[in-house]
Amino acid sequence: MIFRIPTDRINWTTSSFLIGTFVLTLTAVPLYLWYFGIDWFYFAVFGVMLAVTGFSVTLGYHRLFSHMTFRAVLPVRLFTLIFGAGAFENSVLMWASEHRRHHKHVDHDEDPYDISKGFFHAHIGWLLFKLQPQPPFDNVNDLKKDPLIMWQHRHIHIIAVLVSLGLPTLLGALWDGWTGALGGFLIGGVAKVVVLQHGTFLINSACHTIGRQPYSTRCSARDSFLLALFTFGEGYHNYHHEFQHDYRNGVKPWEWDPTKWLIWILSKLRLASGLRRVPAETISSAQTRVRHLRSDGGFQDAQ
Length: 303
Ligand SMILES: [Zn+2]
Ligand SMILES: [Zn+2]
Fold this sequence. Notes:
mainly alpha; 12 helices; 2 strands
């Protein structure tokens, strides 16, 4: 323990990756742009890869595999498993196991990204330091039965490297040789991973700190339009914690939730089915309950 930092508990592999990619994005990316100039191609690769990987995490990892808010055909499941790996957020099995524990034990010690341990811990500290041993995957037995999920779990690191770093490097090389390969690697690969990961991390940190609590005051989760903008609609986190089996996070039709729109479009294309929705009466009675609590002065923070 040095300066209250638990140095003996540093997760070296994860820490080196998270800090290394962050430093590269802040140094090598601007240097590359300064030296070689701005080329729209690399920003297009960045944008497309960010969207494809991001939706694979929100639609696939989160709403499909962790919460089973809908069913999807095999090509959709395979696509999200392959491109979701590109976020470098580990396998679906690991992700869903941690996420289900987060929902079950939110704001308590067994919550892996427990906000009561501080913003930094919930954002990234829980990944940099392993304060507790990895619990067994005993809450994802349903997922263990899926051979595709187990295939992804066994090969997660190689899939992640090929999809997230290899693919943009190859696209860059095809565009402009060695210079292009470097641009594709740095902008479409490394910078995309950093932006995407901190988007995910913000849900664990900021969505438990900033925003409104219209549906429940039972836990720290909050709704934030601003955070929904950066997280493909995942910012309506208060609703999500109260009704985790609803495929929508932004439940109101006008709420910015591109992931729910994409799931709905997939259902119209017959690629998704069984979309789960909480009845409107249940939602409005939850809102009424919170309003009563507030008017009784029982909870100051709800808005
Ligand atoms: Zn969730
Ligand atoms: Zn949460």
